[in-house]
Amino acid sequence: MRHTLAILLGAKLRPFTIMVGAIIVLALIDRGTGYFFSVGTAFSVFQLFATLGLVALGLGLSMMVREFDLSVAGMMGLAGCIAVMTGVENPWLGLVCGVVAGVVSGGLQGLIMTRLRISSVGVTLGGLLTLQGMTYVLTGNRTINYPNLPVSLTLSKPIEGLLSLRSAAALAVFVFIALVMAFTRIGRDVAATGGDRRASMIAGVNTDRVLVGVFMASGAFSALGGVLLSYSLGAASPAGLADVLAPAAAAAIIGGVSLLGGRGHPLGIAAGVLTLCILRSGFNAIGVPPPVHEVVTGAILLVIAIVDAPDLVRELTRWRLRRAERRAKHEAAQP
Amino acid sequence: MSNISTLIWPGFADTTRRRVVLVIRLGGLLGLAGWAFSTPGIISLPSFFALLNAISFIGCVAVGMTFITLTGNIMSLALGATLSGAALVFLATLTLGVIPAFILAILFGIIITALQGAVIGWLKANPILVSIAALALLLGTAQIVTSGQSVYPAAPGSEIFKTRIAGIPISALFFFVTVAIGQLILSYTRYGLAMIMIGSNPRAAEAAGFRTARIIMVAYMLAGAFSAVSGVLLSARYGSGDMELGAGYDYNAIGAVLVGGTSIEGGSGSVIRTLIGVTIIALVEVVLILRGFSDQMQYLITGLIVLAVILLHALGEGR
Is the pLDDT of residue A261 over 70? Predict the structure, then answer.
């Protein structure tokens, strides 16, 4: 029993255990009224997944190599605006422009980091502020409408009731990256760089190139997420997308990505994102007010932070020893 | 730390590269100053007060953030929410009188960040993760308590934080006091020196017998207290408060800390540097307004300046 629990809560399976746990808890609250277990809820879960998932994937990849790409939030907004402005006639052109912007911005930031040996937080913070500024300038601080209605409708139309074209695209990206990570040398190099950068460098991995590549991918994914979101909403606005960073980081961490690097898997990130989406849509479906969702997410994150803390065991042991010592003294004092 | 020149310009020119960077930095500062003072209307009193006001709200949070960055904990994403929460506490408890409400708000800020500091200090939990968790918990709880409504002053009296003494806005005075207290703690107390030590080498600090966990918790408590001050000032200025009040302040604050030259890796920096960082950003914003740039261009140029200064500092460190 204890052994099974250890496996289920171990690094590999924990994201999936948490996800199943969330489903079970919601099902228990729902008690067969059918609000939670419905196609509608599942559809909205995957719609949310499409919005949050790609940003979380980008951020999660950067966290896997022990960096932190704050700029994903800014990139998502900028790419959405670029796509809406360039893709009126031809949506593919807008898509390409947006994603190229993501690749360029990620590549530039990656180059700055590796050439100057600066930590990613500083560079991507500057990147975030700059990208946000560019979005404001491009849009003139207004909401830009996307007049190509057929594209918006096609992207959000349910396929088989569960998925839309948008969420299917997001899922496909996840599967593709999972395959790359599992079966190619690139995947191995990324994992190695995250695990121990110096050792991988000595073993012949070009870690600088890996870092630049990861940041390009991170930029591209968040850009793609932004483009798809703006297309399906039929609008892009400079504000409102900044709140995406905290949930994306939360999803990646619930998904088993460690901020200490070297740990994490694209499918785990997918499970993390799904957990957040299931909680949000599920709570909506059974009529729990949105703030409760926020509190539950925060509590889950706090628990993970504490469980993953490197000194937790040490502090617990120290506390137990102290208690035992006190008891021994107490017993010795009594005749 | 005592030498004023190393305080302001880290790594005071000892290699060619550093000298070049120093020249660029000085040139940049002089250029900025020249650009600023050639702007019509910059020396007039109204724009001076606009500058002071722009400084003080973000400044208090940035001073708080400095302690978190210095101890090697990068940044907190929850200071903006702490600010908003403290503002709500202040407005709701005004019935007890202005000063008790002020104290309660500060206490609220301290407690919120002390809890985070405890988890981070004793268990070495990841600071960014803990701050995101705290952010979600704060936002959710506040929405439940206020049912998503704005909070208005429960009693009059908050206007006192809007007045001026000898023409200087009270908020600016509060900010300067905050900077003074912050720098005094950092330079002249055991805790301040220990914070810098922990930031530059946590294991050495522990081996040297510092109670690192307690010191990190104190750093977080200071951050909470200073953010709460900003919350009180902001809520008095707007006459109402909600959780949107401090949204985005975390990023602006860490931007100011980094522009001032405090190292993102911890262990090197000061509150005075943060004051310089805040001033530079605010000065640029005021000049942009006076020169008639749109809001949008201000966002972009501020972002670019943060990026440029961070690059410059990295080059100056000469690693």
Answer: no
- Residue indicated by tokens 């949204």: B247
Whether the pLDDT of residue B6 is over 70: the answer is no
Note whether A126 contacts B141, CB cutoff 8 Å: no
Cβ–Cβ < 8 Å for B158, B148 = no
Tokens of A176: 């593709």
Handedness of CA B110, B112, B116, B118 (dihedral sign): positive
Q: Kindly give, in sequence order, each residue whose CB lies less than 8 Å from that of residue B121, ignoring residues fewer than 6 positions away.
A: B212, B213, B214, B215, B216, B217, B220
**Alpha-carbon torsion, ordered B81, B87, B89, B93, to 10 deg:** 180
Nearest CA-CA partner of A20 in B302, B298, A28, A213: A28
The tens digit of pLDDT for each residue in B19-33 reads 777 788 788 888 888
H or E, element range at A29: helix A14-30
The torsion angle over the Cα atoms of residues A208, A204, A67 and B304, rounded to 10 degrees, is 0
pLDDT of residue A110: 94
The tens digit of pLDDT for each residue in A302-313 reads 988 888 888 888
d(CA B182, CA A192): 42
Q: Is the dihedral of CA B261, B266, B269, B274 positive or negative?
A: positive
- Report which residue type is found at B212: T
- The interface pTM score, or ipTM, of the predicted complex is 0.85
- Determine the Cα–Cα distance for residues B276 and B178; give it in Å rounded to an integer: 14
Which domains does chain B possess? 1-38 (no CATH), 54-316 (1.10.3470)
Between chains, do B296 and A136 touch, taking CB under 8 Å as contact? yes
Contact B111, B224 (CB under 8 A): yes
**pTM of the prediction?**
0.88
Using the beta-carbon criterion (under 8 Å), do A305 and B119 form an inter-chain contact?
yes
Phi and psi of B155, rounded to 5°?
-155, 155
Tell me what percent of chain B is helix, strand and coil, each rounded to the nearest 5: 75, 0, 25
pLDDT of residue B5 exceeding 60: no
Across the interface, whether the CB atoms of A299 and B123 are under 8 A apart is answered: no
Of A65, A63, A11, A61, the residue nearest A200 (C-alpha): A65
Determine the Cα–Cα distance for residues A291 and B2; give it in Å rounded to an integer.
48
pLDDT of residue B285: 82
Q: Which of A112, A137, A243, A313 to mutate to test the interface with B (most CBs of B within 10 A)?
A: A137
Residue A107 and residue B281 in contact, taking contact as beta carbons nearer than 8 Å: no
Mean of pLDDT values over A3-29: 80
The tokens for A199 are 């050792």
Q: Which of B125, B295, B298 sits opposite A309 (nearest CB)?
A: B125
**Distance between CA A115 and CA A81 in Å, rounded?**
30
- Using the 8-state DSSP alphabet, how is residue A143 labeled? P
Most A CBs within 10 Å, among B68, B122, B123, to test the A interface: B123
Where does residue A85 fall: left (phi above 0), alpha (psi -120 to 50 degrees), or beta otherwise?
Answer: alpha
Cβ-contact A190, A64 below 8 angstroms: yes
Rg (CA), chain B: 20
Nearest in space to B140 (alpha carbons), one of A324, A294, A182: A294
Lowest-confidence pick of A51-60, B6-15, B89-98, B160-169 = B6-15
Q: How far apart, in whole angstroms, are the C-alpha atoms of residue A163 and residue A169?
A: 10
Q: Give the integer Cα–Cα distance in Å for B288 and A224.
A: 33
Place of tokens 């796509």: A83
Residue B109's pLDDT band (cuts 50, 70, 90):
very high
